[in-house]
Specification:
By secondary structure, this protein is mostly beta strands. The chain is built from six helices and 25 strands. It has three domains: 128 residues, baseplate structural protein gp8, domain 1 (Sandwich), CATH 2.60.340.10; 145 residues, no CATH class; 145 residues, no CATH class. The longest helix has 13 residues. The chain starts with 6 loop residues before the first helix and ends with a strand.
Length: 458
């Protein structure tokens, strides 16, 4: 028997953790230990000679919580507004080859942790405008030289051939709270008041839209022709340029696409071709008949087969160099795809291989947390001076904990609900310590502010 923990499970746990910061729970950040690290191994660490330079690594034993409670200095309640999903930060850098989205590869787990991943492994980027974009195509492994911009609903193509999908923009209020050199915050669904662009992206995502077909092998010997039609086009024919082939049937079963002018965007299949007159007969009529100012491309046909698409997608070969297919572009992206096989079926060449890229459930941009791997949660707490009169100054601390639902030490031992407490106000050994971090000494003064960010992985 074999099994995995799906990323959806990790996100589910992260969601539940964030939700736990609301009533009836009271979760505190507690600091402790004002004495230097010293002594032999104990119930809280195994190092034999730790110091304030050689910080020990905490261990989870039955006895450790008693020691941590004894070391408590003060605690501050963490509101849910100071908790967020975060994803690894990958800044867009010119000259980098970014990984394109691939529904068959475990992109999320390969990109989830900045400690073990790099920009080159990432399929999304964080830009100087504090926006995040998913890479839908990397132009067959080319370097990215144009930083993605804008917050449009579609997928944009840069001058470097990269195709990017806008996902979200980090709000100014979240910059100081959650952005670090390794992490950026992410949430979904978007706030309809403060995250309008992200909300529009979510609302306009198309479930099962076939946004991209990659060329994994370009093959050899494929035909193409482009130019302006000659006079004489009819609703079911097009007269190709004088540079087109003079061989009968040369373009049979290939497709003609109008890239400019009358008939723009129409894609038709050629059923017969007469070389002497350069006339291609089509299997269906033009909606708008091209004229001599139109621009056409004749390319090999791309056929898409699927068992799931509720609105069919259509695609076309859009670039050939030296008989090698370079790029396939979508004409109609379709709806409801869960599988798709794309093949080149005409054009005289051989050995081209295409790969359809199926979007996530709901479509690209529908749920940024799920799509980008939000299995990490950041908690942000700021300790400002004496902070409620409970945090001592002119002293230091070396431990940081998360403490759930402690009780107060006053008669009755009621649940702790205040914003801050000093150690004497918290009932000994009450609550659950669910996170422990050992640090080098942090000295506190009356005018100091400690901005503490904890990242928890699920």
């Amino acid at each position: 028997m074999s099994a995995i923990i799906n990323n959806s499970f990790r996100k589910f746990q992260a969601d539940n953790f964030i939700n736990s910061f609301s009533s009836p729970n009271n979760i505190y950040l507690a600091i402790g230990k004002d004495s230097a690290w010293a002594g032999a191994s104990s119930a809280q660490y195994r190092e034999t000679s730790p110091s304030d330079i050689t910080i020990p690594i905490p261990i989870d034993t039955t006895a450790a919580p008693f020691i941590h409670h004894d070391d408590f200095i003060a605690a501050k309640k963490i509101p849910q507004s100071n908790v967020s999903h975060v994803i690894a930060r990958y800044d867009w850098v010119s000259g980098t080859v970014y990984r394109a989205y691939d529904h068959l590869r475990d992109d999320i787990l390969e990109n989830i942790n900045p400690a073990t991943s790099t920009n080159e492994n990432s399929f999304y980027v964080f830009t100087t405008a504090f926006r995040v974009y998913k890479c839908i195509s990397n132009n067959n492994g080319a370097v990215s030289t144009i930083e993605p911009t804008g917050a449009g609903l579609g997928i944009t193509t840069g001058a470097d051939g990269y195709r990017w999908k806008f996902m979200f923009e980090v709000q100014q209020a979240d910059v100081l709270k959650y952005i670090t050199s390794d992490w950026i915050p992410v949430n979904s669904p978007a706030n309809s008041t403060t995250q309008i662009d992200q909300k529009n992206t979510e609302d306009n995502a198309v479930d099962g839209s076939l946004e991209q077909i990659d060329v994994t092998a370009g093959g050899t010997g494929y035909r193409t022709d482009t130019g302006n039609p000659q006079p004489g086009n009819t609703t079911t024919t097009i007269v190709l340029a004088t540079t087109a082939s003079e061989d009968d049937d040369h373009y049979n079963l290939m497709r003609v696409y109008i890239t400019n002018g009358n008939g723009l965007g129409e894609l038709k299949t050629i059923s017969d071709y007469v070389g002497s007159t350069r006339t291609a007969t089509l299997t269906s009529s033009w909606t708008v008949t091209p004229d001599t100012a139109s621009v056409y491309e004749v390319m090999p046909a791309v056929d898409i087969t699927t068992s799931t698409g509720t609105i069919p997608a259509t695609a076309r070969v859009s670039s050939i160099s030296g008989g090698v297919i370079q790029r396939v572009s979508m004409v109609v992206k379709g709806v409801g795809y869960r599988d798709a096989v794309a093949t080149v079926t005409s054009g005289g060449g051989t050995n081209a291989v295409l790969a359809s890229r199926i979007g996530p459930v709901g479509g690209h941009g529908k749920n940024a947390v799920s799509e980008l791997g939000g299995a990490f949660v950041m908690l942000n707490t700021r300790l400002i001076g004496v902070d409620g009169g409970n945090f001592p100054v002119n002293d230091d601390f070396r431990k940081v904990h998360l403490l759930i639902n402690p009780k107060v030490s006053e008669p009755g031992n009621a649940p702790a609900t205040a914003t801050t407490y000093n150690a004497s106000e918290i009932l000994d050994d009450s609550g659950e310590i669910i996170y422990t971090e050992f640090r080098a000494p942090i000295n506190r003064s009356s005018d100091s502010t400690e901005d503490i960010k904890l990242v928890v992985e699920f």
